[in-house]
Design goal:
Length: about 500
């Protein structure tokens, strides 16, 4: 495997993804929490950083930990750190260098082997290496950055000023492959199938005859995690799927069926009334979230207590959540954690098992495919834990939920029938707390407004409104107004995130 040391660059996760796309396992660790260097680690990559090596308190690592022991590649800040600490000079660039540049590399080097003699690379840096020490060999330059790539004489230590991990560096993947395969000697055998096999083996060993309880949501992560645990321990995995009355139309029944088809030991718990009861009269979004969190803990705790001698709690936590919670940047962790792991009652004192905590989302989907889970679940849009409660602005009543479920179902089914569902990252409808005038037949109506929201995104952190075809929106609007009693106006949300968010509450 490859160890990636993170100095806080926005691109660090991309380095990991590119390495994994080469079927080589890698892990990101913060620069100040270096894990034990085991024989499994075949090489180290130092990431970029928003910091400047010229600042006294900028992040540092002792390069001698790795030099002459393991191949080492410094990217951007990582390369500057090498130059700066090994006797070269780093200064502020005259112009901040950002964007495309053409790399020339006349000399042969292992790192740039089979890369075209002139190739496009992506620069993003404010500092530049102005002088390299005698034992550094220059292996690549651009017009404005003389020291764009270098190697240390007699050792497998390399530095590059550009970012090979971004797609704009057109041959970046070849460069990373040269490093991890040819220089580090990693074998490209880390695949979904190998992950499934080794994870099931490890889970069997870890869990033995112990019982595990898991709450499933119908989402990709919890389903794939449960399937892995199920393959390892079969009926000793107790799954609980709670109907909080805030799911999509017919979702509870259809997801429950899918779980039964997968052979899971699943219990569906109808707790609608408990949730509606706790939500009654609440209008503040955070108060609603809290009430739902609490209701969920009540139910889950009650159900888990019915399982005798349960020792473990299974969770679908994935790698980005883990990285964020230990990241160099820190505090952003809290935002995500309340989405995914929040609400775990610590009095339950269960040990945690998280079989997906080293995987990115797309890798989770691939593992799901390797496990034979249907696309119906794997390609499902994300859906918030508090469900329709945060899509009904204002207080929640069963009647409002029923209206929104109908509207949402028309919209989502429409997207599916028109082949638009997979082009959209997330979609749904909001029930607004306003009424507006309309005419139906000869009568004036005074009814509800719904807003449709569909976005494109990669990870939900930023998003654009989906440019759905007008004729599709027209059809959906007609269908909603004609079929859903109580709604006489449909609007489409054309805000991007930021500054708006995906949900309205
Ligand atoms: P926002 O509205 O913050 O949403 O742009 C980003 C993503 O997070 C989901 N979301 C939630 N998920 N509990 C959840 O489990 C929540 O309270 C919550 N709020 C937003 C949202 O659906 C989108 O995918």
């Amino acid at each position: 495997q490859i160890l990636i040391l993170d100095f806080g660059s926005q691109y660090t996760q991309l380095i990991a993804r590119r390495v994994r796309e080469l079927n080589i396992y890698c892990e990101i660790h913060p620069f100040n929490k270096i894990p034990e260097i085991t024989p499994a680690i075949k090489g180290v990559i130092l990431s970029g950083s928003p910091c400047s090596v010229r600042d006294v308190d900028s992040p540092r690592v002792d390069l001698d930990l790795f030099r002459n022991k393991l191949p080492l590649l410094g990217v951007c800040y990582g390369a500057q750190l090498m130059a700066h600490t090994l006797g070269g000079e780093v200064n502020a660039s005259k112009h901040r260098e950002y964007g495309r540049a053409i790399l020339n590399h006349p000399e042969h080097s292992l790192l740039l082997d089979s890369v075209s003699p002139t190739t496009q690379v992506w620069m993003s840096h404010g500092d530049t290496i102005t002088k390299i020490p005698d034992n550094f060999e220059l292996i690549g330059s651009t017009d404005s950055v003389k020291v764009a790539a270098f190697k240390l004489t007699g050792e497998q230590t390399y530095g590059i000023q550009f970012h090979p991990e971004v797609t704009h560096s057109t041959e970046g993947k070849t460069i990373l492959k040269n490093f991890v395969v040819d220089i580090c000697g990693c074998t490209q055998n880390w695949t979904s199938e190998s992950f499934v096999e080794s994870t099931i083996r490890d889970l069997k060993e870890k869990l033995g005859d112990d019982k595990v309880v898991m709450a499933l949501s119908g989402g990709v992560d919890s389903t794939v995690a449960a399937s892995l645990v199920h393959h390892a321990i079969g009926k000793n995995l107790y799954c609980i799927f709670v109907d909080n009355g805030l799911l999509r139309k017919d979702e509870f029944e259809s997801v429950l069926h899918s779980y039964q088809d997968m052979g899971l030991n699943i219990k569906g718990v109808n707790s609608k009334d408990h949730f509606y009861g706790l939500l009654e009269g609440l209008t503040d979004p955070e108060a609603k979230r809290k009430a739902i969190g609490k209701a969920f803990i009540d139910i889950f705790d009650q159900e888990a207590h019915l399982i005798e001698d349960v020792k473990w709690l299974g969770q679908g936590t994935i790698y980005p959540d883990v990285i964020e919670s230990v990241s160099v940047k820190g505090p952003s962790a809290t935002i995500k954690s309340h989405h995914n792991v929040g609400g775990l009652p610590d009095f339950m004192k269960l040990k945690i098992v998280e079989p997906l905590n080293t995987l990115f989302k797309d890798e989770v989907r691939n593992v799901g495919r390797a496990l034979g889970i249907s696309d119906n679940i794997l390609k499902r849009h994300p859906f918030p834990g508090p469900g329709l409660a945060i899509r009904i602005l204002g207080d929640i009543t069963p009647e409002k939920v029923a209206i929104l479920q109908e509207v949402d179902a028309i919209f989502i089914n429409g997207l599916k029938t028109r082949g638009l569902y997979d082009q959209v990252w997330q979609a749904g409808a909001m029930l607004l707390p306003v009424q507006s005038v309309g005419v139906m037949g000869d009568e004036r109506t005074y009814e509800r407004v719904v807003a449709l929201r569909a976005v494109t995104s990669v990870d939900g952190m930023t998003a654009d409104w989906a440019h759905l075809p007008y004729d599709f929106l027209a059809d959906i609007s007609n269908e909603i107004i004609n079929r859903v009693k109580g709604v006489n106006r449909v609007v489409y949300d054309i805000s991007s995130k930021p500054p708006a968010t995906i949900e309205w509450e």
